[in-house]
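Hi D.,

Good news: the full-assembly prediction came through. Inputs first.
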Amino acid sequence: MPVLDAQVAITLPDGSVRTVARGTTAAEIAASISKSLAKAAIAARIDGQLRDLALPIEQDARLEIVTDKNEADALELIRHDAAHVMAEAVQELYPGTQVTIGPAIATGFYYDFARDTPFTPEDLVKIEEKMHEIVNRNTPFTREVWARDAAIDHFKSIGENYKAEIIEDLPADQTITIYRQGKWYDLCRGPHLPSTGRVGHAFKLMKVAGAYWRGDSRNAMLQRIYGTAWRTEKELAEHLHQIEEAEKRDHRKLGREMGLFHLQEEAAGSVFWHPKGWALYRALERYMRAKLDAAGYVEVRTPQLYDSSLFRASGHWDMYGDNMFKIRESVAEDGTEKYLGVKPMNCPAHVQIFRQGLKSYRDLPLRIAEFGNCHRNEPSGALHGILRVRNFTQDDAHIFCTEDQIPTEAAEYFKLQLGVYKDLGFDKIDVKLALRPDVRAGADSVWDKAEQGLRDALRANGLAFEELPGEGAFYGPKVEFHLTDAIGRSWQCGTLQLDFVLPERLDASYVGQDGAKHRPVMLHRAILGSFERFIGMMIEHYAGKFPLWLAPVQVVVATIVSDADAYAETVAAACRKAGLRVEADTRNEKINLKVREHSLSKVPVMLVVGAREAEQGSVAIRRLGSQQQEVLALADAIAKLTAEAQPPAVSPVDDSTDSAF
RNA sequence: GCUGCCGUAGCUCAGUCGGUAGAGCGCGUCCUUGGUAAGGACGAGGUCGUUGGUUCGAUUCCAAUCGGCAGCACCA
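Then the structure:
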């Protein structure tokens, strides 16, 4: 056994080294540095690991004293401890409730409880009060190491079966630690703050909802209480304010207020696009079509209904049959039923187009695009406004190419896609690579190749990415593009999927230079994802205030006096002729009201006309959000607005694109 | 799909301890012609999500069902 030094060397962040007795705690070292640091200390970072202040240091180490200035660490600790405080509060108020897990999350924490009676909003108020009480008690968190079997037996004996189960499933070499706060204690890996008082009072319980034990829908449903917690009351207030701001942007609310679309129960999960919403949709579609044309895609249109045999062959019938809309077409005399399926994606259809006629390597890459209208029978609980619907249109395309062409095609796609996101107002994009799922088609060697292919393509294009094991599609890995919106929320939109499996299953082939048949590779790709979802997201991103080229109504001509009505119609007609989406507001209302209403409905430009403008043949331009007005001659105003309303840098349509059929 | 909550006028909501309902905004008509974020008066509008049950009587109580909201699960 090696002889242990009685002293250990502690390296502080400033590079200085202190020699202290073995077993000295970080708290003691902080105290030796300064009184104020000892007071501010909430945890320690020992060799990069966040640990308890009270943990004895047994060997040479780098040490950083964590205070609430270290935002990420402080929030993590406060939230995690708030979860413990909440669990204590719940068990104190509602004996018999079992605790399970309670982690810190992005803006707060939650704890899952097993209890037969549902928690009510009134219960949350009581729990919150009790939490404040526990924080005021300021009892220290203390760490204990328990023997595994003893811990299991103990938790079973007090009826905490979920806890016992958690311990049973911990790796054999894991130290079982228990944290105590006064009379209450919980199995926990730690670390924790020095005492409950350090949690502070900047927390609030937000909601209670169901959550499956271990996230598996086959398991019992627990009750999850969510809370938010911050370092200061100010941070808490800011967060609550941000939630209110997000609610104001809700696309369901704005969609109604702006007259864009509606949903109704007779067509749950499908969108009724109103004229204004459809104008927006068409503007986006027109832009996308021009981008695809310029990028050498060919556009197609494929059927909605297919014999089930196609989806059986592709694998979708088995994988996703429960979420497909199926129609029984006939029953044969022997009882055999024949089914049709409404297409839930476009890939098998595009393979059918590829398969028409013999394809040569000279035809590749073949980029088949479709604004593909799909139906998926999403579970009722999944539906959400127009963000998650049962009928949607993908900006879908499948690139049939050779393996050699993958890097170039991927690069072209990245370029196209990042340009589109930029044009649409998004410049923060996170890239993720979703790897093979447990249930999948295709041999592992094929998956190795596909995954590596995407990694290579991402690296070659300088895109940093995070890997997500198990998240890929059943036929191939996928690159996901997550956009960050104006208020910092993340939305998964585009994907690029590399697929060696479907061409095989649906027997797609081309004749190579060697005269033999070869399998093409398929790249599945979408930039927006679906128009419905993307538009919903854009409504929230822009808070309804779209750039001029996308705005559902670009211009409103508003009259001040009814004597200007005829002139207003002239102005509106001229705008319309120039291609602007325009409305004339000649109602017998005051200009104040008109300005207010059109401002609230986010119309970017108002052309105000009164007797003076009618007389001079001019318009007073008033921009949304500005009090300024600019009086211009009608022709000048139209020229100016028309120029501004141009969609961003769309190259002209290239009609010479080779068609393979 | 699961858990919880909810479904009253176009919208936001109040109300009925069981006796068929109200407000504001919006809408219509009229007055007002007003220069950049709400001018005024009057009026119309609801079989209280649907179906069934309990009851003399249900929008109110119960059940089922459909839909919505939050979260979970799912998301080719």
